[in-house]
Amino acid sequence: KQEVTQIPAALSVPEGENLVLNCSFTDSAIYNLQWFRQDPGKGLTSLLLIQSSQREQTSGRLNASLDKSSGRSTLYIAASQPGDSATYLCAVSLGDYKLSFGAGTTVTVRA
Amino acid sequence: KAGVTQTPRYLIKTRGQQVTLSCSPISGHRSVSWYQQTPGQGLQFLFEYFSETQRNKGNFPGRFSGRQFSNSRSEMNVSTLELGDSALYLCASSFNRDSDTQYFGPGTRLTVL
What whole-number distance in Å separates Cα of residue A92 and Cα of residue B82? Predict the structure, then answer.
């Protein structure tokens, strides 16, 4: 069974600081990994999708890396803004049509 | 292109009742998945449908069921509701395979009294 862990559970930073969010998974035979953002009481917004053959993906201020062999992914958010405050979730797929989610990291960016 | 839509957005039911939730995927998407989100258990996979066929099912009791129609719209049903079924139920769609990005709807908030 795939276990996904996200550390830390919560993070508070001043505006402008770079954010580093960590995700680890137990089964390295993943098909892909996705990072999502969730605002309170809302659905999930996809941020980045990394296929198993890729090492990283970038979109604007976001960069996600993937190291399958060590079972880790890191999401970097550059120059954080108050609007980045949300819960960030990582999810992995083993190619079985389902996602296994971590518990998330709740980020607060202080103005 | 319109996103994933879910109806209703909020529901209040009492124990023992049954409920049906609906999900309309993004146009052209053929895969629909359902997830339950609770503060204690986080996001848990319920089931996935593609072309009206269930391809995978999570570890939930038989009270949870679903189906997909020929237009890719999907419904999930929960019978004999229990207090522990109170949760945010999220639907996600993707074009086809596991390699595709999953797009989530806003969810249906179910409260069981």
Answer: 29
Nearest CA to B101 among B109, B93, B91, B112? B93
Closest by CA position to B20, among listed B69, B81, B104:
B81
pLDDT at A94: 87
Residue pLDDT, tens place only, B67-91: 999 999 999 999 999 999 999 999 9
Taking an 8 Å cut-off on Cβ atoms, the answer to whether A97 and B107 are in contact is no
The shortest C-alpha distance from A110 to chain B (Å) reads 24
User: Cα(B26)–Cα(B98) distance, rounded to whole angstroms?
Assistant: 16
pLDDT digits (tens, 9 = 90+) for A91-105: 999 888 899 999 999
CB pairs under 8 A between A and B: 61
Tell me if chain A has a CB within 8 Å of the CB of B30: no
Structure tokens given for A74: 């890191």
